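Record type: ASSEMBLY
Status: queued
Input:
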Amino acid sequence: MKTPLYGIIPPLVTPLIDNDHLDIDGLERLIEHVIAGGVHGIFILGTTGEAQSLSYALRTEMIKESSRILNERLPLLVGISDTSIVDSILLARIAADFGANALVSAPPYYFATGQPELAEFYENLIPQLPLPVFLYNMPTHTKVSFAPSTVKRIAENSKVIGFKDSSANGAYFQAVMYEMRKHENFSIFVGPEEMMAEVVLLGANGGVNGGANMFPRLYVNLYNAARNKEIDRVHLLQSKVMQISSSIYSIGSFGSSYLKGVKTTLSILGICNDFLAAPFNKFGEIQYMKIKQILETLDLTE
Amino acid sequence: MKTPLYGIIPPLVTPLIDNDHLDIDGLERLIEHVIAGGVHGIFILGTTGEAQSLSYALRTEMIKESSRILNERLPLLVGISDTSIVDSILLARIAADFGANALVSAPPYYFATGQPELAEFYENLIPQLPLPVFLYNMPTHTKVSFAPSTVKRIAENSKVIGFKDSSANGAYFQAVMYEMRKHENFSIFVGPEEMMAEVVLLGANGGVNGGANMFPRLYVNLYNAARNKEIDRVHLLQSKVMQISSSIYSIGSFGSSYLKGVKTTLSILGICNDFLAAPFNKFGEIQYMKIKQILETLDLTE
Amino acid sequence: MKTPLYGIIPPLVTPLIDNDHLDIDGLERLIEHVIAGGVHGIFILGTTGEAQSLSYALRTEMIKESSRILNERLPLLVGISDTSIVDSILLARIAADFGANALVSAPPYYFATGQPELAEFYENLIPQLPLPVFLYNMPTHTKVSFAPSTVKRIAENSKVIGFKDSSANGAYFQAVMYEMRKHENFSIFVGPEEMMAEVVLLGANGGVNGGANMFPRLYVNLYNAARNKEIDRVHLLQSKVMQISSSIYSIGSFGSSYLKGVKTTLSILGICNDFLAAPFNKFGEIQYMKIKQILETLDLTE
Amino acid sequence: MKTPLYGIIPPLVTPLIDNDHLDIDGLERLIEHVIAGGVHGIFILGTTGEAQSLSYALRTEMIKESSRILNERLPLLVGISDTSIVDSILLARIAADFGANALVSAPPYYFATGQPELAEFYENLIPQLPLPVFLYNMPTHTKVSFAPSTVKRIAENSKVIGFKDSSANGAYFQAVMYEMRKHENFSIFVGPEEMMAEVVLLGANGGVNGGANMFPRLYVNLYNAARNKEIDRVHLLQSKVMQISSSIYSIGSFGSSYLKGVKTTLSILGICNDFLAAPFNKFGEIQYMKIKQILETLDLTE
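Status: finished
Output:
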C-alpha cells in the first residue's frame, strides 16, 4: 500500500441476514459494485459498517470475507475501535492475519477521556498494533474530539498514517490540516460527503463517504473534479450528492436515518440485504416505498 | 434471590495488575471487605468496574472469580452492557453459568437510539437472557436516557426486576419512581451516593454507590438510617458521605477523578491494586499523597 | 425581611394579554391565590415568569404592579438576570425603588463563561446592587453551572443571601449544601418541585416551585411535612405533586410544555390569562381540553 | 443596498472604554481601517460585537456612531438578536432611524425553541421589522439550529434576504445552500473564517469573519481568490488565515479566547481599546505579550 492514501474510500456497510449472520452474497456484490465504481480503497467495520453492533465473531468473519473478496485489488482498511485496548489489539491482529493494509481507530467510547489521556491511550496502543493506523474522529459517538495538537502528538509515531474526521466541523478540519501541514505522507479524509469536495479543493486527501456504497462513481467523479480544480464540474456533481443527502438520508426522525437510507437503497438496487443490527431496525413498508420513489426521481446523470 | 432487592449494592471496582490481568488477591480482600461492611449484594462489571475497558476474556474471568469468592453469600449482579446484542447475550450466559443472580444492562453506547428503538432493543434482548435483569440508566456515557414510560414499557416483561439510575437527575428519578409505583416487586436504585439517603427516604430501594467499595459500613448505616426514617442520623452520616465525595473524588481535573480516587484509596487501605485499565492511568505520586493525607483527616466515626 | 429565607416561594408566572401588556387583573388574582395558599414569599421575573421574553418596560411594570399588590405582606424577590451587567443593575435599582426585598441573578446566558470569569462577574456585579441577592443556577438555559466552590467564593460577600438551583442534579445540590454548610444565614432552594421534599428532608430551605402558582397549599403542606420530618405524609403529598408533574407538564413535545401547562391550568382555574410571550404560543384547543380533563381527574385531597 | 450581498462583512468589535462607554475614537479608526481594507459591508452588534453584553443605551449609541462614521459608504447591518421580541423590534426601529440597511437576527437565546416555534417566532417578528433581515445561526450560543427547511419556510417572506451560519458545521452549511438553491437573491454567509474560502468556492456569498477586524485586506483577498477560482492563491492565503486562527485565537483556555485575541490585537495595532464587556476581561500582561510576540512573527505578506 502506497502512502499517502487518497481518493474515495467507502465506509462499507456490513450486509447482514440477521444480528449474527453476514449476507455474504450481498457483500460480494457490494465490493464488486464499489470497485467497478472506481473507488480507491475500502474501509470495513466503521460506523457505517455498524461495527459496534456486531459480535467479535461476526467482525472477524467480516474481515475474513472482505479480504477474500477484495483479494488485494485495493487497500483494505479495518476498523478496530473498541472500548477495551486488549480486544482492540486482538482485532488488529486478526485484521493483519487476513491481509488488511491499515487499521482505523476511534477513541474509546464509553468513558470519555481528556486530551492528555487520549494521547497516552494511543501512545500505548499504537506500538502494539501490527499495521499502520488512521485516527478516526467521531465526537458525536465517542464524546471526545482529537485536539489538532493531539493529532500531531500521536502522529509523531510514523505508524500513524492518516486521520479521518467525521465531526462535520469545517473550522476544526482546517485546523487539523494546518497543524499537520508538514507531515507529507499523512492523509486527511473527511467523513460527511456534503463537505468532501470543498475540503479536497483546500488540499484534503479524500472522503470516506457513506454514499459511495450506493453510487461510487458519483463520489469518485466529484473527488476527481475537486482534485483537478474543475470548479464548475464540482458544482454540478455536488448538487447531485446533495440530492441524495437531502432525500435518502432524511426519512424518519431518528439518528439512524442515514444508515437505514443507505441499506434500503442498496436493497432496492439489488446489491445486499437491508437488515440493520440491533439496536436498529430496517425501515418499514412506508419508508421503503418512499426511498423507492426517491430513487426513481433522482437524477444522477452528468 | 428474593425480590425486590434493596440496600447497598456496591458497584465493585475490578482490581487489576495490568490491562489484561486481574488482581485476584485484591479481589478476594475487596469482596470480604464489603461483605464485612454489611452490604446487601454485589454488582460487578459496571461503570465503576471499568467493564467496557476490559477484554471479554477478562470480564469472563472476573465473573468466575467473583462468583467463586462470593460463594452465594449475597446476590451477585453482573453487568452485560455492550454495543453488540449478540456479545451481550453471550456474556449473560457466562454469568448464568457461573451462578450470577441477575444481570444489569445499560443501553448500547456507540450509536444513541431514540426511545422506541430503545424499548424495542430491550424487547428483543430480554427474552434471550437467562436471568432477571436490571435496567441501568447512565446517560452521560450512553447518550440516551430511558424515558419513564420506556422503563414501564420494558418492565412489562417480569424478568425486568429493577432499575438503576446514575443520571443524578433528582426530578427524573422521582418521575421513574412515580411511573413504576404499582410494580411492587420492582427495585429502584440510585447511583450517585450523594443522593442515596434522600431517595431512600422517598421510597427508593437503595444505592449502587461506589464509595461502598471503600467504606461499606458507612453507606449501609446511612441506608438503614434513611429506611428507618431517622432523619438526624441521616444528616450526620450524609455529612460523612459528603466529606468523601468532596475530597477523594475531586483530585485532578478529569472525568475519571472519581474512579482514580476510589482505586487509590483502596490501595492505600491495603485492599487492592490501584491500576486503572486503559484509557485511564492511576494517579501520580502527588495525587496519591493528597489522597493519603485526605484519608488521615477523614472523620468517619459516628 | 428576615434571613435565612425558607419555605415555598413560587416563581410567579407573568399574566399577559399579549407580548406587550400585563394581565393586571390576573396578576392580582394570582398573588391573592398564592398568599391564600400560605406561601412564604414571591419571586417574579424568573424563568417561569418568562422574564427574558419580556421587554424592559414590561418587566418594570411587572415589578411595580407586583409590589403594589403584594404590599409588603411577603418578601418580594425580583429576577434581574440579563446578559448585560449595566441593564441588570438598572433593573435592580428599579426593583429597589419599588420596594423589592431581594434580587435573583442567573449567569449571563449568551456567551457561557468559565468558573473564574463567573466568580469575577459576580464580584463585579454584587457591590453595585442595592439589595441582597440570590444566585440562580439554571444550566440548561445559561450553559454554565456554578461550581460549589464558586458559590462559596461569591458568597463571601454577605449580600449574597441564598442560592436557587434548577439544575435538577441531586448530587450537585448536595455538594453545594455541603460546601455552604457553615454559612448559617444562607438559604438554599430547589427549583424542580419533584425534588423539593427530599432536599428539605436533607436540610435545604425550601422550594421555588412552579406548581405553587396553581396549587400553593399543596406545596406548602409538602414543605411543612418535610420540615417536620413526617415521612408518611411526605409520601402522600409527594404522590400528588408527581400526579401534577407527570400529567400537566407533559402535554406536547416541546421544552415549553411545563410553562404552557401551568398557564393553561391557571386560565382554566379562572386565575389569569394563558397567553405566552414569544417565542412560545399557548396551547391549542386539543391540548387545552386535555389539561381540562386532567384537572377534573386530579385528586389533590389529602 | 443591492442584493444579494456578497464579500467580506466584518462582524465589528465594539470598542469600549468600560462596560458603559464606547471608545468612539477607536470605533472611527476601526471603521476606516476595514473600509481601507476593501470590505463589502459592516455588521455591528453581533456576537463578536458583544451585543448581548451591552446595555440597550449603549447598543443604541453604537448604532448611531457607526452610522455616522460609515456615512453610507458601505451597507450597514445591525444585530437585533434579543430574548424579547418587543425589545428586538425596538432596536430594529432605532437601526432604521439611524439609516441601517439591514438587520441580523439570531433566535431567542434563553429558552430554546423547537423548529415550529422558531419558524412561528420569525413569522411573527419579520412583518414588524422596518428593514430587510438576515437570519443568524449560532447554535452554541442559542441552543437551537435553524433546520434547512426552517430557513426556507422563514425565507418565504422576501424581507429575509440572507443567512449567516456560525455553526461551523460544513455538512449543514451545504444542506442550507442546497435547500435555498432556487432563491436567487438570497445571500449565504459563513461565520468561521477557517471555512470561508471553501464555501465560497462551493457557491456561498461570503464571510462574516472576525479576523477581518484586524486584517481586512487578507480576508478580502482570500474571498476574491475563491470567487475567482484561483485555487493556488486560495491555498496560499488560507494558510495565512490559519496562522492567525491557530495562534491569536488560542491563547488561554476560555471560550472567549477568540474575542480577547481580536481585541488585544486591535489594541496592539493602535486601532482601539481592548476592554471587554462583562462577563469577560481583557487579557492580562502575559497573554498580551504573547499576542505581541505572535504579531511580530506573523507573515501575512503574499
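Annotation: Chain A has a mean pLDDT of 96.
Annotation: The radius of gyration of chain A is 18 Å.
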